[in-house]
Structures are given as C-alpha cells and as structure tokens.
Amino acid sequence: MQNQSPIIEFDELIKISENPNLRIFDVRTGPVAKEEYLKKHLKNSVFVDLNSDLAEIDNPKNGGRHPLPKFENFIKTLGRLGIDKDSHVVIYDDKNGANAAARFWWMLRAVGHTNVQVLNGGLQFAENQNYPLSSGEYSYSETEYISEYKDWQLPQIWMNDVKKATQDSDAVIVDVRESQRYEGIAEPIDLVAGHIPNAQNYPFIDNLDEIGLFKSPEKLRNLYSELFENYDKNKITFHCGSGVTACHSLLALDYAGFDIPNLYVGSWSEWSRNELESFLGF
Fold first, then answer.
1. Where are the domains of the chain?
2. Residues 6+ apart with CB under 8 A from 122
C-alpha cells in the first residue's frame, strides 16, 4: 500500500464501492453537520465528529482549539467506527477535503494505517456525479483496531519548538490559512489576528484548481518545490488555525510525492493565546 495515492477519484470509488473491506466516512463540520449528514450522505458512509472523535477539546491555550486525542483513545475510536487493519478507508467532507477529511487522513496515517484515501472533490463533486446517496444513520460493526505503535508516527512539533523555529534561519514555518487571516486583516475565529513571527503564507486553497479538485501532483510539486529545495523537511512546519486545515496541505504534499513535514497541531489558536501580550507589545 506504500505506493497508493492519498487521493481517490470519484470513478475509482465507484469501482470499489462493493468491496467488503471498504469503510467510507463523512467528516463534514459545523454546528449542524450531523443533521445535514442525516438528511443526505454518500451511501454507506458513517459520520465522524471532528470535536469528539478527532480531537479532545479542553483549554485552547494548551493545545489549541482541536488538540489531538490521546493515542489510545483514538485507537478505541477506530474500533468503534468499524475500522480494522484490513480496512480500506475513504474519507470525504463538504470542503474539498480541506477540513476534517484531511485531519482524519493524517491521524490514520499517524497510527500506521496506510490504506486510507481522501475523496477528491468531496461530497459536492460526488453528488454532482450522481454517486448513490442515503439518509439516516449508518454504521459498521465494531471491531478492535490493533496498532503496532503506542504513539503518533508522523512528525509533530510543539509551541516551544515553534518559538525556536522563529529564530532559526534554517527552519521555516508555513501558515496555510487564507491570506487575510495571515496578514491580520480579518480573524473570524481566534482572539487576535496576525501570524507567527517569520511564518510564510502558503494558503491551502492553492492546493485546489478552479473547480475544487486537487491540482495534479506535478502542479503541486511545482508549488512546493522551492520550499523543499531551500529547507530540510525536518525543519519545515505546517500549521493553520487549529491543526485541521494544515493537514490539507500535508495531504497535498504527500500526493505530490514529498515527505510529510512537521505539523504544529496547536497552531495559531494556541500560539495567539499564549503570545497575546508580546504580540500586542505589552
């Protein structure tokens, strides 16, 4: 499975839709996400909740708005969702994989599950292509997920590491939020607008083409090649607002054939709350 693309196309999903090992998950977000799922979702897809299944929310000052759950708790969640080591997991959301679909993909990869893909174009594209839809709740039989690991396997760094990176000319911090948030012009979610010192802005939306599909691996490689030519991958850190959308860019990087660099899960939501005084010049 090492050579499997992290992106699955609509027609590929149609071909494997009757595979008994296939597990499809709907991870759209928002205040009425579950209600919208119950009204309409891709056939045989199970709803996954970002806040309760893919995060353990506490104080945003300690880990940001969507800190990762404890590793062992996430392993239990996988079993409850019906995923085992043989499952072919396909994930979609209603934001072109830009939200929780990519986060769930990253988390599965980080527990060592390689047979996982994000549906290109997400819910809207599949619906426009007349993929079979269902309503109501759907679930798979619970199983027991066995991981050979005891902790997350993809690279992460934490706030103290990011502080050091802001003063390290050999390191680069990449902010994937839209430019208005990065530039401090607007901040719809967190307490203060702006960005981490010395961070560069590579908005995640640039991973997509004009109709909301991922650009080709070649185009993505061109987009990020300068970054990887100038910095060691171990010195590259991606972040966003709360460690969710950043995974969209990590997914794009994997799709383009790059090694997956560091993720700063706490992201701007953690950083801004801890650095508020210095940021405002107090």
1. 7-134, 159-279
2. 92, 93, 94, 95, 96, 97, 101, 212
pLDDT at 67: 97
CATH superfamily of this structure's domain 159-279: Rhodanese-like domain (3.40.250.10)
**The one catalytic residue among 81, 240, 244, 247:** 240
Task: Evaluate if residue 134 carries a pLDDT over 60.
Answer: yes
Name the nearest CA neighbour of 248 among 35, 43, 87, 92: 92
Assign 268 to helix, strand or coil.
helix
Mean pLDDT in residue range 234-251:
97
pLDDT range class, residue 99, cuts 50, 70, 90: confident
Enter the tokens of residue 209: 């083409």
In CATH terms, the fold of domain 7-134 is Oxidized Rhodanese; domain 1 (3.40.250)
Average pLDDT along the chain: 94
Q: What is the pTM of this model?
A: 0.95
**Quick one: tokens of 78?**
């996988």
Strand order through the sheet with 200-201? 200-201, 172-175, 236-239, 262-263
240 among known catalytic residues: yes
Token pair 């396997």 in the structure block, residue: 153
